């Protein structure tokens, strides 16, 4: 829809309502308040308001459309990729490699302490390994998977791992160690910056070599007892995005962070994959158009779609409050509408 048409409609509605309100107030005040309500006068005011408001909106929109028609198309492919390279974590990044060395040390410490009880050697997983981490906000995740029946309970597992790691407070740059919702977080002082490594412990359920499903501890707060949740970090690590899909995820992670969009990066990953499935055979060629295709899928499907995590079919990723879904849909819709009017506007999501 052109701005002239949009503004004319909005102007007509706004002008009509304003004129009607003014007339009602006028007819119910002063010397007119004791007279019968003059419907003819009311409708004349209403029509006048619609005409004036619509005219002003039409003129304003026409000017906007003219200015928009003069805007030169930008090289969106180049500009989006330039931004992508500026926000995406580079494995050569000095801070990343410094923290990676800390994680290597930590993996060795955990392996030596729990070696007889481990199903797998501790390993890194998550966005840093996938290539979808943002360089300004990344941390490193380490999976610590135990053999079945190593601990009497999942809570005991979390407590023992936390108690052991606490003994390293102040060593090798560790400033603070804390229990988190599902993991133990270690804050390191690295080259003058505070950086984090998360340890995710979970106990496998079965002895089978290739079955890595199990349970992790979920801390719910000071006044509520911890619970457990099924997971399989190996399955999570096996989710494969193409290089282009990874780029879309990085762009959307940066956008949702800057625009305070209430959606998790994990859910975004699944939605990107679903968008590609739905559009199989007619995926657009341009990078900007691929981003818009993903946002269109989110706008059209988020409220109704039901997505389950591969690690736990009981984990419904789309089970989030309707108000948050509506915020996400609105944000995507705004980007789509702006892009359809002026493709250059896609650059607003990277600012």
Explain the overall architecture.
It contains 11 helices and 9 strands. It is of the alpha+beta class. It folds into 3 domains: 68 residues, no CATH class; 147 residues, Beta Polymerase, domain 2 (2-Layer Sandwich), CATH 3.30.460.90; 110 residues, no CATH class. Helix 8 crosses helix 9, helix 8 crosses helix 10 and helix 10 runs antiparallel to helix 11. The longest helix has 32 residues.
What is the number of helices?
11
The CATH top-level class label of the largest domain: Alpha Beta
Helical percent range? Answer: 40-55%
Number of strands: 9
| Topology-level CATH name of the largest domain | Beta Polymerase, domain 2
Task: Indicate the proportion of strand residues.
Answer: 5-15%
Taken from the alpha-carbon principal axes, the silhouette is elongated
- List unreliable stretches of 5+ residues: none
**Rg estimate, integer Å:** 28 Å
């Amino acid at each position: 829809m052109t701005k002239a048409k949009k503004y004319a409609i909005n102007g007509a509605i706004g002008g009509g309502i304003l004129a009607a309100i003014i007339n009602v107030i006028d007819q119910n005040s002063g010397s007119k308040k004791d007279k019968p309500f003059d419907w003819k006068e009311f409708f004349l005011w209403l029509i006048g308001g619609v005409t004036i408001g619509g005219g002003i909106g039409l003129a304003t929109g026409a000017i906007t459309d003219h200015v928009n028609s003069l805007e030169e198309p930008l090289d969106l492919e180049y500009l989006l990729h330039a931004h992508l390279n500026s926000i995406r974590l580079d494995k050569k990044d000095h801070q990343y490699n410094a923290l990676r060395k800390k994680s290597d040390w930590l993996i060795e410490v955990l392996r030596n302490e729990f070696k007889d009880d481990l199903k797998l050697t501790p390993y890194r997983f998550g966005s840093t390994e996938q290539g979808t981490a943002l360089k300004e906000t990344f941390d490193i995740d380490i999976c610590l998977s135990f053999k079945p029946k190593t601990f009497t309970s999942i809570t005991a597992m979390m407590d023992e791992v936390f108690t052991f790691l606490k003994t390293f407070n102040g060593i090798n740059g560790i400033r603070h160690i804390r229990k988190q919702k599902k993991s133990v977080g270690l804050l390191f002082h690295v080259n003058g910056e505070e950086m984090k490594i998360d340890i995710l412990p979970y106990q496998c359920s079965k002895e089978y070599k290739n079955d890595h499903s199990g349970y992790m501890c979920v801390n719910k707060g000071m006044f509520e007892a911890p619970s457990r949740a099924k997971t399989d970090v190996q399955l999570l690590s096996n989710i494969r995005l193409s290089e282009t899909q990874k780029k879309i995820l990085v762009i959307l992670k940066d956008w949702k962070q800057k625009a305070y969009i209430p959606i998790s990066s994990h859910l975004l990953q699944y939605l990107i994959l679903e968008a590609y499935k739905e559009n199989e055979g007619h995926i657009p060629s341009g990078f900007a158009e691929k981003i818009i295709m993903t946002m269109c899928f989110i706008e059209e499907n988020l409220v109704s779609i039901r997505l389950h995590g591969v690690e736990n079919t009981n984990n419904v990723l789309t089970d989030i409050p309707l108000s948050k879904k509506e915020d996400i849909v609105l944000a995507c819709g705004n980007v789509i509408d702006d892009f359809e009017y002026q493709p250059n506007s896609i650059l607003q999501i990277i600012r």
